[in-house]
């Protein structure tokens, strides 16, 4: 068993090493599930086989020593050298390969449960959600807000709150489901979403915006026009630069994606009818975000959860707190 455990750890290190160096894309949810199953197997083997066997061996040692002392006492020898307590403790001691498998099972199970059904941490890698979320923000995502899903399969088994316009959602990128993206929900199933001349329309109604002055973008080291936008009942800040329009015909080249026939493109922008079971996503940094305008709709089965809290930013502790 020690050789098998060593082989399993070598495979784990090889997988993590290849993932870290970019030789392949890892799947943390699947890895955590496999680790939970494997350590559960070791824990059950320890609980019902190895631990009782060690206890029986230790009891046999004590019984043998007691029998030896009784025989010597019958011969008139009352003082016997030798203390078996050290040997007994050594027999009862858990070997390393069980300590590093069965011993880790409760911890891995707790992490698996928390990450799969309650909250999951993420790190913001890009500026597409500035000014709401900054590069380096460490955020928490509510995994059960939209319903309970089976780990790995991401199959919803219990409904909860519906997705609403204005929600900040983490989802698996439709073109590469191994990557997680974060954007804001602009359109829900059945909506007609229009983005023309850098203005957002939902079902023909212009999303209300109010100027909020300039925002200093530390990454770009420049000031950007900031607005307060309202989607449904929710207000949030966005950045829109009238001097830069990534949807201008000479720059805008949308990808191929499912239900692309639901979208119409012109020199002003685009208009898309959101299909059933899908969502239209936009970044708050409208001129610096590749989102549904470029790669299409997010299917419901790709939803990871609702982002709701910045728990740390090592470069700016003032970032800690909830956000809209």
Automatic annotation (TrEMBL):
Membrane topology, as annotated, equals: Single-pass type II membrane protein
InterPro entries (UniProt xref): LexA/Signal_pep-like_sf, Pept_S26A_signal_pept_1, Pept_S26A_signal_pept_1_CS, Pept_S26A_signal_pept_1_Lys-AS, Pept_S26A_signal_pept_1_Ser-AS, Peptidase_S26
Assigned EC number: 3.4.21.89
GO molecular function ontology, one term from the record: signal peptidase activity
For this UniProt record, the keywords arranged alphabetically read as follows: Hydrolase, Membrane, Protease, Transmembrane, Transmembrane helix
Q: Name one Pfam family in it.
A: Peptidase_S26
Where in or outside the cell? Membrane
* Broad class of enzyme this protein falls into: hydrolase
Q: Which residues form the Peptidase S26 domain?
A: 98-312
User: Is the Membrane keyword given for this protein?
Assistant: yes
Q: Where are the transmembrane segments?
A: 28-45, 97-118
- What Gene3D superfamilies does UniProt report for this protein, alphabetically? Umud Fragment, subunit A
Which reaction does this chain catalyze?
A: Cleavage of hydrophobic, N-terminal signal or leader sequences from secreted and periplasmic proteins
Task: Report the family membership.
Answer: Belongs to the peptidase S26 family.
Name this protein carries in UniProt: Signal peptidase I
**Which organism's genome codes for this protein?**
Roseateles violae
Q: What is the lineage of its organism?
A: Bacteria, Pseudomonadati, Pseudomonadota, Betaproteobacteria, Burkholderiales
* Underlying gene: lepB
